[in-house]
Design brief:
By secondary structure, this protein is an alpha/beta fold. It has one domain: Alpha/Beta hydrolase fold, catalytic domain (Rossmann fold, 3-Layer(aba) Sandwich), CATH 3.40.50.1820. Helix content is 34%, strand content 20%. The strands form 2 sheets. A 6-stranded parallel beta sheet has the order 2-1-3-4-7-8, sandwiched between helices. A hairpin with a 7-residue loop joins strand 5 and strand 6. The protein starts with a strand and ends with a helix.
């Protein structure tokens, strides 16, 4: 079934202004203008983020929606896919943010700060999706050169999913353009 609704989830300290979010938005708008696109600014609290996302997609048709998530957004996308059964693309998906407790700056605006509370780590743990229920509906793109996350941990977590392991690369997937066609083909956008 083709995808008519697409949710994009940015990573920790990131925003809808990230390079990948902008490139995905441009590709969807130019190649699949009829697809409903949503890329919200996520709050620091995982509980608040999931509440906002759950409400935002409540009326979306689960069998025709998909989610793309980068880093922390990939963690969230895994949870959403487990809850809805939708397709998900996970870009260097994160799992643990315990080392980031404290004051943080926004990647796209260093003057914008937020506080990542210890409670947020517990909120994340509460969202662990467990074993992948429908791994064939997941595509994980993981860079072995990720300087932030351990590619072995990511690839082990998503071993049963469709997995694209990149030699080299980086956490931001600076070569994102090279993977856009694979992502769009997997999503099967309307």
């Amino acid at each position: 079934m083709t995808t008519t609704h697409l949710l994009y989830l940015h990573g920790f300290r990131s925003s809808p202004r990230s390079m990948k979010a902008i490139k995905m938005a441009d590709a969807v708008q130019s190649r699949h203008p009829q697809v409903r696109w949503w890329c919200p600014q996520l709050p620091p609290s995982p509980r608040e983020a999931m509440s906002m996302l759950t409400a935002g997609i409540a009326a979306w048709p689960a069998q025709k929606m998909a989610v793309v998530g980068s880093s922390l957004g990939g963690f969230y996308a895994t949870w959403i896919a487990a809850q809805t059964g939708c397709k998900a693309v996970l870009l260097n998906p994160a799992r643990d943010l315990s080392r980031y407790i404290g004051e943080q700056t926004s990647w796209h605006d260093p003057l914008e700060t937020f506080f990542f509370k210890p409670d947020f780590v517990q909120e994340l743990r509460g969202l662990q999706a467990g074993p992948l229920a429908q791994p064939e509906r997941l595509l994980a793109i993981i860079a072995k050169g990720d300087e932030v996350l351990d590619w072995r941990e990511m690839s082990s977590r998503y071993a049963s999913a469709r997995l694209t392991l990149l030699e080299g690369g980086d956490h931001a997937l600076s070569d994102f353009d090279a993977h856009l066609d694979e992502i769009l083909a997997f999503l099967d956008l309307a």
